[in-house]
Design a protein that fits this description.
Immunoglobulin-like, four-stranded antiparallel beta sheet, four-stranded mixed beta sheet, 4 helices
């Protein structure tokens, strides 16, 4: 452990559209997504794992994140996971190809929000409301159960289209913030993530290990804000860093109070993996 200062079918259709070579974008409405809006009546809870392939304590947390994603262990809850790879382990002999200073900075913002003296890996942040060791399955499950009771606003991904091989155009709808909440506005983010990834680590603390990941975030961007009494509806762009592997991409939209605050809504469209 190291401290520092800081849905199925929709993309399959996208792949077909790209393969046909059409220059025009291929729009996908929710009615075409065959039930891939996974939220239903379940309450979404966003689980962010700050991890690194250079950290010997991280593989158990990577595995736990995958288990949360595949088993959905908390009834009435849709656990939406994100794997965010920090870059401060890269000098220890292994450069994590999924790492970015963006995630290091995001983790640092959480550290300040939670009043930590330093941040660490593996760290899980549950709905922006609590943080804990990402390998502690019992504590993580308890935190998810607690987050389920917090208020959430609906977030809908109502259409997706291919703009170009490295970008998706996404239509997002977010309900207004309730009048009785403290926050006057909240930030809307879109994240494009690899559904799954695997690395054979050749150096550093995990030398010789094969590490599996889920929901590896390739890009995360703020795309707007939502306020009290005013809904948000807009087409935004999600960036794809691995355009040759669209079938291995999942899309997440979430709403978060400013400065690394609480997540008050989220939605997932998953990759076509069964």
């Amino acid at each position: 452990m190291k401290a520092t200062g800081l849905t199925q079918a929709f993309l399959a259709v996208i792949v077909i559209a790209v393969a046909l070579g059409g220059a025009a974008a291929s729009d996908l409405s929710l009615s075409d997504l065959s039930g891939n809006d996974l939220s239903g009546s379940d309450t979404p809870v966003l689980v962010e794992l700050f991890t690194s392939e250079g950290c010997s304590s991280c593989p158990p947390a990577d595995a736990l994140l995958g288990k949360l994603d595949s088993t959905q262990p908390v009834p009435g809850t849709q656990v939406i996971v994100l794997s965010e790879h920090v870059d401060y382990w890269n000098h220890d002999g292994w450069k994590d190809t999924y790492s970015s200073s963006f995630f290091t900075d995001r983790q640092g913002n959480y550290g300040r929000h939670f009043g930590l003296h330093s941040v660490y890996t593996p760290q899980m942040v549950i709905d922006g409301a609590s943080q804990l060791n990402g390998s502690d399955a019992a504590a993580v499950t308890h935190a998810i159960e607690g987050a389920r009771s917090h208020f959430k606003i609906p977030v809908r991904i109502s259409s997706v289209s291919v703009v170009k091989p490295e970008a998706l155009r996404v239509h997002i709808e977010v309900d207004a913030l309730p009048g009785d909440v403290k926050a006057r506005k909240a930030e809307i983010f879109i994240a494009v993530a690899l559904d799954h990834a695997e690395s054979h680590v050749l150096a550093g603390e995990n030398k010789g290990r094969d590490i599996r990941h889920v929901a590896v975030v390739e890009s995360m961007e703020k795309v707007g804000t939502v306020e009290k009494g005013r809904n948000f509806e807009r087409e935004v762009v999600g960036k794809i860093k691995s355009p040759g592997d669209l079938a291995n991409v999942r899309l997440i939209a979430f709403v978060q109070e400013a400065d690394g605050g609480e997540v008050v809504g989220a939605s997932l469209l998953g990759a076509p993996i069964r």
